[in-house]
Amino acid sequence: MSQVIPLHPDNDFKDRSHTVLNNPGQRKNFRGAMDFLQEKRRGQFPDQDELAGLRELGASIRRYSLARLPQLLEQLEKNLTANGIQVHWAETADEANAIALNIARKHNARTIAKGKSMVSEEIEFNHAMAAAGIEAFETDMGEYIVQLAGEKPSHIIMPAIHKTKQEIAALFADKIPGVAYTEDVDALIRIGRQVLRRKFAEADIGLSGVNFAVAETGTLCLVENEGNGRMCTTVPKVHIAVTGIEKVVEKLEHVPPLYSLLTRSATGQSITTYFNMISRPRQPGEKDGPEEVHLILLDNGRTQAFADEQLRATLQCIRCGACMNHCPIYARIGGHAYGTTYPGPIGAIVSPHMLGLGATYPLAFASTLCGACVEVCPVKIPITDILIRLRNEAQARPGSVEASLRGSGAGRNVLVSTIWKAWSLVYSRLGVYRLTSWFMSRGRALSPVEQGAWTRCRTPLKPAPKRLRDLLEEKNK
Predict the structure, then answer these.
(1) Where does a domain end: 140, 174, 194?
(2) What is the per-residue pLDDT for 168?
(3) What is the tally of structural domains in the chain?
(4) For 276-292, how does the pLDDT look when each residue is reduced to its tens digit (9 = 90+)?
(5) Could you say which residues of the chain have pLDDT below 50?
(6) Is the sign of the CA dihedral 429, 435, 439, 441 positive or negative?
(7) Does a structural domain hold residue 443?
């Protein structure tokens, strides 16, 4: 397998965006894919009243769960432990990887078969295992493709959506021994399955994510389409599940509405091919299943979001990707430009808690604030409101009341702040405004030709030769 190079957002966002924007082929592919996914979603929600009611129900369940998060996590741990599942808590990504590595070493594991898991991408799980001499290989077809290419997923639901069949054909022919170049999609899928089928039987440990964790029953719910997740959770002797602490819900009856919203919003399916419910390791007399099941509950900045009443809504996300599919920015630049595990609108509001606002604040400005993401979010996260909040946090003066997040003030520019203070002074005092507008109209010839981002694609702004009040005075003479 090719080694995956970790991505980092920092201030390279603009450079990565320009690279994609200068690639018309990739832009066309993304636009077509997003249009296709939007159409499939619309087909699943023909009744707008039903959609509105289901979204409100889903949002209420997520808000209710988050309001009781500490209690539900304790209840979840209690019931999972009673069922025979071992629960581990990790504050950081490094701690989560260390826990998994200790489990692997305890069993002398050399290979780990992975079902699709965005949290494992978040903690750079593959990278950490490779550093310890353990092979972690992806079994989801999209994840397998990007791992083979040494890349990261560009979409949280469809990791290889940025790849054409020609690129995948060339990749398989180059990386898989004995495979000839073919652009037949069915043949490419068969090739991937043949390679992975052998690896399932050889894996020492299986790893998966968790879509919903049910506190009252101690059940881990896993949504998938390919069956690889079920193979990872049943064939190896040890199963490790890793998830964020926000994925817990109180009751089993809370899962179906969220499940319906997730599948229909994500891929336009009324239901996925597989829905797995895991409550315990293999019991005496059962023919399959792991002998040990471990759950790693990860914080990694989530408690920072939880502690803030407005930002807590960020944790309502069920990782459907609908906001990305409808975002005019994501549709043009794709996921890799963001440099974060979670791209698009949801990535812009989630990533600051995981990586710090100092490394991610440019993403909050990568939005038109058109509200398309808010309109389609199945659990009604007010994404645009949170984006504005993060923009303000990025510009906040360190130590001020507005600077409440890790990395607040990272985007603050003294010159820009001074200009806005001057603007506020001018527009809050009538006499100053009249005097300033008089000087601007008379000195319009001194207007700069270069006006920052404005003149990159627009003509320079120049005050009118006469103010409106001057024109009205002339008219009334």
Answers:
(1) 194
(2) 95
(3) 2
(4) 999 999 999 998 899 99
(5) 1-7
(6) positive
(7) yes
- In the sheet that 248-249 helps form, which strands lie side by side, from edge to edge? 248-249, 212-214, 219-224, 274-278
The pLDDT assigned to 402 comes to 81
- Is residue 452 included in any domain, yes or no? yes
The pTM assigned to this predicted structure is 0.89
Q: What order do you get walking across the sheet with 238-244 strand by strand?
A: 86-90, 292-298, 238-244, 205-208, 111-114, 135-138
Q: Is residue 29 part of a domain?
A: no
Closest residue by Cα to residue 85 from 255, 218, 234? 218
Which residue range(s) make up the domain with 172? 164-194
For position 11, what pLDDT does the model report?
A: 55
Q: Which pLDDT score, from 0 to 100, does residue 7 have? A: 46
How confident is the model at residue 10, as a pLDDT?
52
CA-CA distance, 276 to 221, in Å (whole number)?
6
Strand boundaries in 341-382, DSSP class E: none
Domain boundary among 172, 194, 216: 194
Q: How far apart are CA 386 and CA 69, in angstroms?
A: 21
Tokens standing for 251? Answer: 């009751």
DSSP label at residue 282: P
